[in-house]
Amino acid sequence: MSDKITVENLSYFHARKTPYEIKALDGIDLNIQSGTVTGLIGHTGSGKSTLVQMFNGLLRPYEGRVLLDGADIWAKPKDINKIRFRVGLVMQYPEYQLFEETIYKDIAYGPKNMGLSDDEIRERVLEAADFVGLDRELLDKSPFDLSGGQKRRAAIAGIIAMRPELLILDEPAAGLDPRGRDAIFNNIVEYQKKSGSTVLIVSHSMEDMARYCDRLIVMSGAKILLEGECREIFTRADELSAVGLDVPQITRLMLALKEKGIELDTSVFTVEEALEEILRLYQDK
Amino acid sequence: MAETFIKVENLSYLYDADDGNTRKALKDLSFEINKGEFVAILGHNGSGKSTLAKLLNIILTPTEGKIFVGGKDVTDQNMSDEDILALRKTVGMVFQNPDNQLVATIVEDDVAFGPENLGVSSPDIRKRVDEVLGYVGMTEYAKHEPHRLSGGQKQRVAIAGVMAMMPECIIFDESTAMLDPLGRKDVMEAIERLNRDKGITVIMITHYMDEAARADRVIVLDDGRLILDGTPSEVFEEEERLRECGLAIPQCTELIHKLRAEGISLEGECVSLEDCVALIERSLKKQ
Amino acid sequence: MKSIAFGQYYPAESPLHRLDPRVKIILTILYIVCSFMCKNVLSYALLLISAIALVMLGRIPLRIVLKGLKAVLFVLGFTAALNIFWTAGEQLLFEWKFIKIYVEGIYAAVFIMIRITALIIGTSMLMTYTTTPIALTNAIEDLLSPLKKLHVPVHSFAMMMTIALRFIPTLTEETDRIMTAQKARGADFTSGSLVARAKALIPVLIPLFVSAFNRAGDLATAMECRCYNGGEGRTRMTVRKLRFADIIPLFLILLFGAGLVALNILKIGYTM
């Protein structure tokens, strides 16, 4: 599988050359495979928000390179805007960035900046609205008339309408109730499958990561702590808890049972898998 | 017998929606909350739970029905300004967005804001501020500027600010929704402590099941109606009902329910992770 | 963006930092008055010395003070030039075509530069560098409180200032965030004509206003919940009592002023 993003020895400082200097990224090497849903997890201040802003050139590395499909995104600094269309970034609480009179116009903002024709824009806006499950009737409404969840979808559609090859979402479900969370994540996963693009999700929730991601990247203290398939990562509960992160609740349950002297497979992180594993215990007896 | 602190009778609230129609946010709600109780009010976004919080504090006035706080009808049209102030001193409120409830530019000045409004004497304010800041573990940040704190720290300052008014009850209106896991943990611990140690009645509005699991009692709202009311254990039994109104039970509880459905006998509460581990362990050893 | 910190407060331990803010405001006013009473070489020398003394009393690094002066370098140069070329006098120093420079012009230029420099150093040392904005706001409220009897909304004004100070950093951060978000959608704030750039700001300003209004609404509710009632019957956690040490500087500045007046009346100190 080819890499969508390759990061080589990336370093970045906030407030460089001031007394408040903070190392936000410390010599990071990383790759994100094409066509996957990858999860990025870490505490506030671990550097994950800085890292994702590197991928679309919102921040420029002090050291190291970011390669998109093998080409340095800063090869032609003047063309950095083109990179931002190829790598779409949905920021945290993106509903706060809506500004147009209608939802349609707001979703069209990105495509318009790309210089597309009106017909092309129309096609993309409708397609993006469908992807995020936004009723077409809502497109002519003002953002003020929408509920919080609908606004969130509209904002995500605004990025999807640019048809990015890599879609990055920073905490896309923050503040939503369980139904809202599931709906948004399902939409994102479905979008990935249909469009064949690559998706990177930043989240705090291990349970959500376990359910929706193929691979995981764990960050801590401006460095990559762990990287690999979800199953692999969750077997390393000790390393995660050492930096104050948790494994999914179900995995914690299995680990607690094992500690009580019950022999079972702890590399389990969904309710269904746990059910199967525990039923096996009863049958063995 | 526990003493009733808040009594809600046939409460309804109508509001004018953006599309010009009138909608009912709350429909004929009745329940009681006892002094010293820790009650979680659960519901999906738009279920009317935040409206309920604002009604309990008379920031909104009900369309129909009555609310009694400490035996006093606070929905009475003839409530004087002093009565309303007295109510807000008794029932404090912590909101969702930590940035939008801190008034002062220095942490300790913000905590002092409430008691200053109440006209408490200067030395007493000082005493209260020092005490509550210590209580939420923010003493070392007393001279800091709020905007340099993390979300969880800001929320703890907000809690201190309400505690400094010495309320009998604090309503938390989704106060953990915008926090990261560490911030949520700190704030939840502060909430539990002020309930257990200080005996303050806590009403916590949330859609996080793991938070609701830590309450004494859970009230579930759906579409403005009260649909479930009981201990966390009783409420989580109604898995289907909860799912219908957009809520999900904790994964461990779900697992126990599924095991029971497979015919495995697991007797007892399964609210927390520890409960579930103990249940499975006991049942396996019996076999 | 965050480097434009509001106010220029420089945290340090110094006699000026400890001084009662109310006294500092009065001192500043008196200092400004004093600077305009200077009329001769000796008094300007005294003014310059007093400014240097203030810098030393405030324990602010010279580098910071000079940086503050750099901003007004143009104003300094411009007024000096005006005085050199446009002051007519008796002692002609230099003449070339229509340009005539008199000795008086040189003096006037030096004096005006000293006055402006002393004014800037004096006010910034007494107020902005050594006093937090919030302490200044409270002090202004205290000093103006007699006006409350005349129904001037002194408290509301001070509350507005406090809230503005509290929310400026929050809104600055928010502006940053929204700009980043719109950049991610291909917004370009740095190229194109002036009109194009102004237009590019619309996607930033609208969400910023919406959010500011939401915050204002939330804050008003939160304040109401914390029993805010417009300042009536309000007490304060810290009530500053005037210490003896706070009064000494007032004597000193009065002495300084009296000295300057004496110099003027007695016409000593090389009056030009």
Describe the structure.
The complex is a heterotrimer of chains A (285), B (287) and C (272). By secondary structure, chain A is an alpha/beta fold. Chain A is 40% helix and 22% strand. Chain A has eleven helices and ten strands. In chain A, strand 7 (166-170), helix 6 (178-195) and strand 8 form a beta-alpha-beta unit. In chain A, helix 3 (103-113) packs parallel to helix 5 (148-160). The mean pLDDT of chain A is 91. The model of chain B has no long low-confidence stretch (mean pLDDT 92). Chain B has helices at residues 49-56, 81-90, 107-117, 122-135, 151-163, 181-196, 209-212, 232-237, 239-244, 251-261, 273-286, and strands spanning 4-16, 22-34, 38-42, 64-69, 72-73, 91-94, 169-173, 201-206, 217-222, 225-230. Chain B has two domains: 4-249, Rossmann fold (3-Layer(aba) Sandwich), CATH 3.40.50.300; 250-287, no CATH class. In chain B, the strands form two sheets. Chain B has a six-stranded mixed sheet with strand order 6-7-8-3-9-10, with helices on both faces. In chain B, strands 2-1-4-5 form a four-stranded antiparallel sheet, covered by helices on one side. Chain C is mainly alpha-helical and 272 residues long. Chain C has two domains: 15-131 and 242-266, no CATH class; 153-225, no CATH class. A two-stranded antiparallel sheet of chain C has the order 1-2. In chain C, a hairpin with a 2-residue loop joins strand 1 (92-96) and strand 2. In chain C, helix 7 (133-144) runs antiparallel to helix 8. The chains are: A alpha/beta (285), B alpha/beta (287), C mainly alpha (272).
